[in-house]
């Protein structure tokens, strides 16, 4: 069972299954289940035989400690990105989601990616284009290309992904995307230090009215890429930055001041209308600011969301553009 399997429903862990091991909220690992094998970590000794036949999501108890346990999760591209060995900086899930949306990747698409890196974005694209599409991913570093190819084989993605060790920018060569015929690609994603160099090759490979996405950490890269896109005839050029803002959702009790029967009813309605408003504190008079008596056993519980103080920093700028139809040029 792999993480692009479209069949819903419970799946059980079997020999050969890729399992994401949930150790802590910010610490994940991955293993391939093998009969009679043992996983050792600081939480204890975990026998693979104990988890075989159990559904994904089960708690896996240690043999050496009654307190040691972990979760055995089914792999998804998002979990895999947290558990895989990072050979390069990866495309985080928010950026990956935006790229997949803007490129409109769907089953049956032929997608080009360069460079492969750690393979996190490749897994996202493979899930979106499965079961009938194909991803052609290019990596100029031979060691990273070989490692990604082995991981795709391990994760049962080989039938969806072709990995090539090649410099698409053509420094010291011709460049381009060997193995992909001109005008046959449905989408192109470039995660390169100099994506503008590969833009003309992407224009050749893309079908008309299809889109390209470029991932660039620096605004100077964006400026050069946008110029290259305009020179290549692309239109609808846009650059976005995706930021993550977390909210802490909790239930809070709100006590209703005793204004008498009608007053309590009015206060209750006001509290229901805006339990998280920034007006006077509950139990305080709006005219005097003095505390009001609280009616016994009066009040309600509301679910409120409070924005976290921090926000994830900048990851990259995402630049998108569309190849025009020949008749529109």
Automatic annotation (TrEMBL):
Entry protein name: tRNA (adenine(58)-N(1))-methyltransferase
Family: Belongs to the class I-like SAM-binding methyltransferase superfamily. TRM61 family.
PROSITE patterns referenced in this protein's UniProt entry, alphabetically: SAM_TRM61 (PS51620)
Chain segments carrying region Disordered: 265-292
Coiled coil segments of this chain: none
Root EC class: transferase
Gene Ontology molecular function: any one: tRNA (adenine(58)-N1)-methyltransferase activity
GO biological process: tRNA methylation
Organism superkingdom: Eukaryota
Compositional bias segments (type: Polar residues): 268-289
A cellular component annotation (GO) from this entry: tRNA (m1A) methyltransferase complex
Record PANTHER family: TRNA (ADENINE(58)-N(1))-METHYLTRANSFERASE, TRNA (ADENINE(58)-N(1))-METHYLTRANSFERASE CATALYTIC SUBUNIT TRMT61A
Signal peptide positions on this chain: none
């Amino acid at each position: 069972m792999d993480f692009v399997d479209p069949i819903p429903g419970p799946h059980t862990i079997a020999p050969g299954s890729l399992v994401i091991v949930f150790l802590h909220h910010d610490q994940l690992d991955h293993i391939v289940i093998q009969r009679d094998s043992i996983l050792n970590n600081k939480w204890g000794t975990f026998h693979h035989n104990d988890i075989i036949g159990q559904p994904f999501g089960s708690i896996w108890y240690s043999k050496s400690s009654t307190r040691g346990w972990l979760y055995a999760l089914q792999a998804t591209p998002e979990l895999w990105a947290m558990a895989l060995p990072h050979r390069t900086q990866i495309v985080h899930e928010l950026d990956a989601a935006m790229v997949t949306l803007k490129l409109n990747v769907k089953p049956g698409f032929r997608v080009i990616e360069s460079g492969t890196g750690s393979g996190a974005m490749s897994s996202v694209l493979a899930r979106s284009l499965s079961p009938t599409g194909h991803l052609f991913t290019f990596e100029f570093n031979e060691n990273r290309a070989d490692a990604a190819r082995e991981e795709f084989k391990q994760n049962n993605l080989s039938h969806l992904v072709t990995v090539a060790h090649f410099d698409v920018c053509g420094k010291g060569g011709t460049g381009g995307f060997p193995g992909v015929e001109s005008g046959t690609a449905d989408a192109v994603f470039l995660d390169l230090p100099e994506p503008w160099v590969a833009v003309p090759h992407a224009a050749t490979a893309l079908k008309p009215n299809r889109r390209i996405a470029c991932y660039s950490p620096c605004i100077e890269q964006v400026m050069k890429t946008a110029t290259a896109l305009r020179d290549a005839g692309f239109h609808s050029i846009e650059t976005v930055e995706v930021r993550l803002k977390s909210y802490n959702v909790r239930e809070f009790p709100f006590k209703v001041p005793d204004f008498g029967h009608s007053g309590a009813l009015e206060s209750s309605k006001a509290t229901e209308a805006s339990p998280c408003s920034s007006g006077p504190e509950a139990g305080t008079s709006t005219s005097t600011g003095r505390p009001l008596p609280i009616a016994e056993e009066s009040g309600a519980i509301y679910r409120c969301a409070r924005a976290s103080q921090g926000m994830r920093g900048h990851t990259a700028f995402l630049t998108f553009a569309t190849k025009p139809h020949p008749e529109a040029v």
